[in-house]
User: What shape does this take?
Amino acid sequence: MRLLPLDPLLCRHLGTNRRVQGALLACIPSRDYHLLVMPKVLVCPPDYFDVVDQKNPYMSKESIVDRAKARTQWENFCSVLQQNGCEIHTIDPVVGLEDMVFAANQVFVGEKPGYGKFVVPSRMVYPSRHREVEYFTQWFRARNFRIIDIAFAHDDFLEGHGDLLWHPDGSRIYAGYGFRSTRSAIEKFALAMSEMGIEVVPLQLIDQYCYHLDNCLCPLNDDAALLFAGAFSAESLAALHKHWKRVHLLDAQEAHHFMGNGIVLNNRYITPRMTPQLEAILRQEGLTAVIVDTSEFEKSGGSCFCMKTFFP
Assistant: This one.
């Protein structure tokens, strides 16, 4: 594991609540405590990144990955995270695990007072990704995270932060299902989270290009979320409107070009591209766009949010 030097900026992003040093909290308004969560981020270098099969509509066996360009894009991505206050940690890439660079999927990470720091290992749909889970689980186990192993059936699947998104205040988790994660696995996950008093909101996905929830829903703050309505069933869309005071809509072109797969950090929105509509939404929520090229990784159906996991 390699630890990059920490930029002195304060890291602000979405995730669960965590205790911060008293001296720091003393100068932060209580309404902003939840923004001081998980200043650490886990990423995986793209040493073996490749497109070898078709797991989603973005992938093609004809796609050729430019390894040098992918490395440059990944390093720039990490630099942007660092410049916005994050402490970068890496997990060693493994030969034959070409998708390991998408570090959001292998586990779900959280922290809850009285329970401590925990991870829920994923159960990935595609066999080629199964082996990634053990490496990430062991990485967190070595750092004293509680491992919550859920007894999944053979047809249960759960794909980490790809389909499981925290509300910024840590009060609930939005859980997508339909293409990767299954409703039955979400129900078992919800039961485990209920023991910690955490609500789980199931959301059915219906657009194959939004095969993960992180492609079509991005919480911007406690009150506002960015989403693509066409990705959700009518019932799920109604549930989302119930939980957010302000719902900002992406169109299909924006969603299918990963503009909802962004990261909120330090009053910035990290995204692979921008439109006038998205820029206006971000301005309304006090966010400034930072454009990060992820074109090589988009060949495999992933972008900014997919390439990291925040942890406490």
In short: The longest helix spans residues 67-83. DSSP finds nine helices and 15 strands in the chain. The chain has one domain: 22-311. The first strand starts at residue 40 and ends at 43.
